[in-house]
Amino acid sequence: MAATDNSEALTQRLADSGLRSTPQREVVYNVLLNKRDHPTADEVFSRVKSELPTISLATVYNCLETLVQCDLVRAVNFEREPTRYCPNLQPHAHFHDEQTGRTHDIELPPTVLAELNGVLPRGFDAKSVEITFRGKATKTVAGSG
Amino acid sequence: MAATDNSEALTQRLADSGLRSTPQREVVYNVLLNKRDHPTADEVFSRVKSELPTISLATVYNCLETLVQCDLVRAVNFEREPTRYCPNLQPHAHFHDEQTGRTHDIELPPTVLAELNGVLPRGFDAKSVEITFRGKATKTVAGSG
DNA sequence: CTTTTATTTAGAATAGTTCTAATTCCGGCT
DNA sequence: AGCCGGAATTAGAACTATTCTAAATAAAAG
User: Fold this and answer.
1) Which nucleotide is nearest to A57 (CA to C1')?
2) What does the alpha-carbon distance between residue B64 and residue A115 come to, in Å, rounded to a whole number?
């Protein structure tokens, strides 16, 4: 697979927030786009290092935080495990495989989302919902990790 | 409200797992039952201390872990915040109020739960689902915290 | 160019939780 | 009653993921 290069899109989004496009931010972003297996910051760090050997872990954290702020990436948490990062911006749930530790994106039909918002009593104004399944996946699905 | 004393039920559940009922476990459990505001381990610690002044934080963590194992209590996580504990065993979602930090239980009709399981593709066998709303609650609801 | 501001960096600091090793507690046996 | 053995508690050290700090670097603006 050719390395994704969404630098224009990224640059645009960063600019919208008054931020600069930097090599570090670009490489971190591309790492997330190229292997969408919900890596942790540490995993991103080691992947990025092959392209930018002198990058620091703090910078990786900074870049990830920036990408999340710009709505280019979602941060995903399972229990107290290290935060994982996900470039899928469609509304979706996560399936966390207890055996393998792998995370799979689960598409969420708008009907289900609508029904979910229906369960909120008056006075509760939700900005976002997070849905996490936990269990075991009997089939491995290409592209997830 | 009189202090809840579910010691028989607790003793039973513990025994089922080959564990003993201890003053520490009982007080920790009662603290959770008496104020269902999803306290953190630290909060439980300080509440328990008024009854058992010499208890240690490690013991509070141990007891909470034990109660979770025995299915008497649920551990709840929001992002990377400290784990909170919830004695509500009915299937329910959580609403996390961003302004106040308070957590509210949201009842989940079985129909919604069923529909949710429907979104899982073949090969995904979910043991549990976790649903977290994030936003602001315009009304304060008695009994939640 | 120089100034200003953003970004990166290494390492220290922090926070929540778990681990370790020693002590205490308690039930069952004599 | 007294002892044994496993379970539970404890204090404090250790650990891990993350954030903070302060200095160095880079890059835009004047």
Assistant:
1) C9
2) 34
Nearest to A79 among B77, B137, B139 (CB): B77
**pLDDT value of position A3:** 53
Interface probe, candidates B119, B125, B136, chain A, greatest A C-beta count within 10 A: B119
Q: Which bases of chain C come closer than 7 Å to a protein CB? A: 6-12, 15-20, 26-27
Using the Cβ of A136 and the Cβ atoms of chain B, whether some distance falls under 8 Å is answered with yes
CB neighbour list of residue B121: distance below 8 Å, 6 or more residues apart = A106, A141
Q: Enumerate residue ranges in chain A where pLDDT < 70.
A: 1-5, 139-145
Q: Report the distance separating Cα A93 and Cα A104, nearest Å.
A: 8
The answer to whether the CB of B65 falls within 8 A of the CB of B25 is no
Residue A84 contacts residue A126 (beta carbons within 8 Å): no
CB environment B104-124: b (16+ within 10 A), e (fewer): bbbebeeebeeebeebbeeeb
CB contact under 8 A, B134 and A126: yes
Amino acid type, B125: D
Angle at B22 between CA B21 and CA B28, to 5 degrees: 105
- pLDDT attached to residue A138: 87
Whether B106 and A121 lie within 8 Å, measured CB to CB:
yes
Least Cα distance to B14 among B69, B64, B59, B60 occurs for: B69
DSSP letter for each residue of A28-66 = HHHHHHH--S--BHHHHHHHHHTTSTT--HHHHHHHHHH
Residues of B in contact with A98 (CB under 8 A): 127
Whole-angstrom Cα distance, residue B111 to residue B47?
Answer: 38
pLDDT of residue A114: 93
Phi-psi region of A71 (alpha: psi -120 to 50; beta: other; left: phi over 0): left
